[in-house]
Structure formats: C-alpha cells, structure tokens
C-alpha cells in the first residue's frame, strides 16, 4: 500500500514519461541514420556508391548522365556515404517522409558521354 502511494505521489508530481506526439516531436540523436541525399553538383558519376550498395538501390549511368536511387530499397547502412570520393552523398539524421507510393529519385548531370549521346541523337 505504501509503495503504491509512493508511485501515486511520484506520478502526480513528475512529468509523464511519454511525449504528446505529434504535438511534441523528439529531435533525432546525433549520428542517427535517417536518409541519404546526393548533391548532384559534387557528384562525378563514378559509380562507386552503386558498387558498394548491398541492396542494389543505386544505379549510375554515365552515358545518360543519371544517378538513380530507390529510397524504399535502401537499408540506410551508410556504405555509399563512406565510399563516395567527393562527399556528394551525405547521411541526414531526419527520416525520409512517409509515402503511400514507391518512387525512384532521378538526378541528372551533364557528362562528356551524355553530351555526346545527346548530340548523336539530335536532342
Ligand atoms: S560515389 Fe559519390 S561521386 Fe561517385 S557516383 Fe556515387 S554519389 Fe556520385
Ligand atoms: S545507405 Fe546503404 S543501402 Fe542505402 S543506398 Fe547507401 S549503400 Fe545502399
């Protein structure tokens, strides 16, 4: 009875252990692996991220000048971020917003090969 009374007094005089989500959101911890992003300006389309990715969710095509990423196949291991030679890939600690549909992120950059291909095709 006494221990219950102690708990009652404790709970009445302390803040609740839980947050009132979604009104109060928890800030992600330092080092949280939320999601990756590519700064295409810094990217050289070397393809290293594609080669090290264990879930095969990055496709780099130098001829097309594209960097493609399937966010829903990504296991957020960070291997691509560690391997990227230009540090164009970064790991953000915020999680990617929810989505009801799968999508692929396509980023385009002009390379010598892609410019030649477009010239040949008359684009
Ligand atoms: S490793 Fe970095 S620079 Fe190379 S293709 Fe991937 S994102 Fe671009
Ligand atoms: S974080 Fe891991 S799974 Fe996601 S794209 Fe990079 S290497 Fe692939």
UniProtKB/TrEMBL annotation:
A GO MF term: oxidoreductase activity, acting on NAD(P)H
Superkingdom in the source lineage: Bacteria
Keywords assigned: 4Fe-4S, Iron, Iron-sulfur, Metal-binding
A Gene Ontology term for the protein's cellular component: membrane
Signal peptide: none
4Fe-4S ferredoxin-type domain: residues covered: 34-63, 65-94
Family annotation (PROSITE patterns): 4FE4S_FER_1, 4FE4S_FER_2
Record PANTHER family: NADH DEHYDROGENASE UBIQUINONE IRON-SULFUR PROTEIN 8, MITOCHONDRIAL
Designated name of the protein: Hydrogenase subunit EchF
Species this chain originates from: Caldanaerobacter subterraneus subsp. pacificus DSM 12653
């Amino acid at each position: 009875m006494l221990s219950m009374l102690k708990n009652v007094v404790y709970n009445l005089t302390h803040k609740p252990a839980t947050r009132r989500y979604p009104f109060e959101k928890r800030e992600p911890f330092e080092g949280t692996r939320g999601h990756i992003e590519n700064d295409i300006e810094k990217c050289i389309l070397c393809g290293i991220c594609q080669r090290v990715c264990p879930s095969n969710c990055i496709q780099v095509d130098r001829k097309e000048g594209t960097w493609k990423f399937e966010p829903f196949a990504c296991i957020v291991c960070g291997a691509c971020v560690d391997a990227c030679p230009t540090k164009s890939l970064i790991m953000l600690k915020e999680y990617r917003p929810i989505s009801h549909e799968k999508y692929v992120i396509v980023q385009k950059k002009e390379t010598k090969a892609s410019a030649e291909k477009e010239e040949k095709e008359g684009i």
